[in-house]
Every structure is written in structure tokens, then in C-alpha cells.
Amino acid sequence: MMTDSLATTCDFYIAPADYRVDFEALRSVRETVFVLEQNVPIEEEWDELDPLCRHVLARDGEGRAIGTARMTRDGKIGRIAVLKDWRGKGVGAALLTTLLDRARSEALPEVRLNAQVAALAFYHRFGFESVGPRFMEAGIEHQAMRLHLTPVPAPPRAASDLPASAPLRVVATLAEAVTALTEAIAGGRQLLRIHSRDLDPALLGHADVLAALKTFAIDRRAAQVRVLIQDVDAARSRRNGLFDLAQRLSSCFQFRAAVEAQDLDFPAAYLVSDRGGLLYRPLAGRFEGEASACLPARARPLIEHFDAVWERARPCTEFRALGI
Prior knowledge:
By secondary structure, this protein is α+β, with helices and mostly antiparallel strands. The chain has two domains: about 10-150, 3-Layer(aba) Sandwich (Aminopeptidase); about 170-320, Endonuclease Chain A (Endonuclease, Chain A, 2-Layer Sandwich), CATH 3.30.870.10. The chain contains eleven helices and 16 strands. The strands form two sheets. Strands 1, 2, 3, 4, 5, 6, 7 and 8 form an eight-stranded mixed sheet that branches. The protein has an eight-stranded mixed sheet with strand order 9-15-14-13-10-11-12-16, sandwiched between helices. Strand 2 (about 55-60) and strand 3 (about 65-70) form a beta hairpin. The longest helix is centred in the last third of the chain and has 17 residues, at about 295-310. The radius of gyration is 22 Å and the shape is elongated. The model is unreliable at about 1-10 (pLDDT under 50).
């Protein structure tokens, strides 16, 4: 495994990767580092575990892949690689930290890895311990290591954490859609998920909705508004007050663009909060739909759909010129 130091001064970010969707990005890093630099046989670089692993990618400010790592479902970490120009800049540490956080969140009792001997000090800083004798793997001396984990405890939930469930109601007009959105936004605790074809200027750019989003972003501690877009070019071409708000509160807003055909063809639009508030419109170009201020049972499948698409979506680099 290739690693780097703990410095974090450069413009990069870590994102989950889908093996099938992001294969070319994974290959561009792993084959450069392991096959070309370290002379690992290409037939040993890719294995039957790759499609089953959880992968993460480090990307630079332009979205280019600069580092990779993977973890099996039972906690074996591997294939940590960082491109030469990005070593010593905190990329490897960020990749490893991301996988450790994932392992803790899944209550894994430990993680393990086979470290290149030259990188032992790096892993010792994270608390890894050596296990057994050193051995050769792909012509490089390695050391088996493991780290015992303390799972992240689930936060206690107060009895009054959620308001009483509200039944679904029909939404038919712009005014009703605006009311439904402001109610769902106001009821959110920390995270809003917005799935939109083109950022819906008439709806998401409505003054009342923007005011609700601003209040949410300012009043909630560590507030996040995640926005998935299907047609980025259309969104950019239309005037929308949401851009101005996101510029002023850039630490709260994240934008990603759908990339897979099934995600681009998804016909609906919705907003769902982490407390079960929602507005769901089966046809993104129309205002008709259904809404509730709090209905977790209906919100749950929307959250699951959003999170799956979010993981395989790409950052909206087109918005960087706007400071977002």
C-alpha cells in the first residue's frame, strides 16, 4: 500500500466510489502506482474482491482521481494508492480515516491490512499493531497489521425527537408546493436532501423557500443541504436565487450531478428532511404531488434512493466559478 504524511493543506476531497461506475478512475491511480511504479503484475492488482469492496477515491479540485483505497465488508483495508505528485499532502491519511470511520459506523470490531514495510510508521500513527512475521507479496516486503475499534455509539434519542406523524396530503399548485417545502424544511434537524432535474427556479428559487433554507442553514448546528441535479446545463442557464444563497452559505450546500442512465432518467423530484418531512412530485416538471410535514415511513425510501444516487454522482464542478 502506498501512503503519505498527515498534512492536509491541499485542495482535495474524499468521496465514495462505485466499482463499476468509477472503474476508470480507480484504474488510473492503481495501475499507475502499483503496476507502473512498483512492478506489481497486473493480474495480481485486480481480484475477485474488488466488485464486493467499499471503495473511496481522493479527487483534486477539478475532480480528477489522485488516490484510492478499498475495504472488504469484514474490515480488510487495501489498495491504498496516491499519485506521486500528491504524496506528502495528507491524501493517504484522509483515505484511511474515511475507511476507519466507515468501519466504526458499521460496528466492526477491528480492521486489518497488509502494509508495505516502508509505510509501517504511517500505520502506527493510527494505532495499528503488527501481527506475525513479515512476508513477501507481489515482490514487496509486507507486514500484517490490525487495529481494534471502538464502535461509534448511537446518539440517544429523546422521546420528543420527532413530531407527531402527519398524513400525506395532495399538492396541486405552486402555492401548495411552496407551503409544503417550507414546512418540510422548517421541520428538518440537520440534513435536507433535494433531488431536482434543473433546480426548479419557480419552486426552489421562490422567496419563501429561499427564506426557509436560509433559516435552516443558519440556525442548525452543522446544517447540510445536499442537492442532486439531473440536468446541470439547464440549471446553470436559468436564473435562480438558490445560487446566490448557496454562494453566501457555501459551507452548508453541496451539489452533485447524476451520471448513470437510470439516475438521469428518474422522472420524479423531491425534498426530504432527516425528520421525515417531504414533498414528492412524480413528474419533475409539474407541481402536483404529495407532501407531509412528518411521515418517516414515506420519507425512508426517498432517503435510501437519494443516498444511493448521491454515492455514485459526481461533484458539480460547473458551479465552482460561482464559488459553490
